[in-house]
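Re: that backbone. Tokens:
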């Protein structure tokens, strides 16, 4: 699995700018996908799941597919969930978060509701979704696929793509651009540190722009 080297000061906005610079201009997810706590930030390699509506389920082992998926998670992966933009149920909760954190996953992104939000926050597990709902997905939705290409929040996500999420949103970096984009984002974070210092010191915006070409 690709190992990400990301400056902790890199934010989603910086990555979005770097994607724009290489012509990838539509890889930020829908604006309604939000963290359960504003301070949350997650960076990782996508491990994907896809749900579809279905009232049928195996009464003896209703979570078999989810269990098998969770048990494959590796350190540095971030779970990304397609829900077909449905809100029939929650798609993630406290125990899935605990299992994922225990395996070294860095967070979860869902285009549908979460549940157990306070408990997830208590685990300090970065979780992003569209509102909350207490319903279990059993008997309402089922997992259609895992580790396959999905559409989440209007963006194509492939296993192995990089994802960064924070209070501003969720950006997806296609695998082939990971090194290029995060090298540029790391440099941008360093430059913006100097820009911020100069602006706070009272230098004019024009002077700072001419010096760094960053705003």
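Recovered sequence:
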């Amino acid at each position: 699995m690709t190992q990400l080297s990301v400056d902790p000061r890199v934010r989603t906005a910086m990555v979005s700018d770097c994607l724009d610079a290489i012509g990838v201009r539509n890889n930020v997810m829908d604006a309604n996908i939000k963290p359960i706590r504003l301070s949350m930030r997650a960076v990782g390699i996508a491990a994907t799941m896809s749900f579809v509506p279905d009232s049928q389920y195996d009464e003896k082992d209703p979570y078999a597919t989810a269990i098998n998926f969770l048990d494959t998670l590796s350190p540095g992966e971030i779970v990304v969930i397609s829900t077909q933009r449905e809100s029939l149920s929650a798609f993630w909760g406290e125990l899935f978060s605990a299992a994922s954190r225990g395996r070294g996953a860095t967070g979860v992104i869902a285009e549908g509701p979460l549940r157990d939000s306070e408990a997830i926050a208590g685990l300090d597990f970065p979780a992003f979704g569209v509102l909350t709902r207490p319903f279990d997905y059993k008997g309402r939705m089922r997992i259609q696929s895992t580790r396959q290409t999905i559409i989440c929040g209007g963006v194509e996500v492939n296993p192995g793509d990089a994802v960064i999420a924070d209070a501003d949103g969720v950006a997806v970096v296609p695998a082939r651009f990971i090194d290029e984009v995060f090298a540029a984002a790391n440099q941008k974070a360093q430059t913006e540190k100097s820009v911020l210092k100069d602006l706070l010191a009272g230098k004019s915006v024009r002077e700072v722009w001419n010096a760094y070409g960053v705003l």
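The radius of gyration is 19 Å. The CA atoms of residues 8 and 186 lie 9 Å apart.
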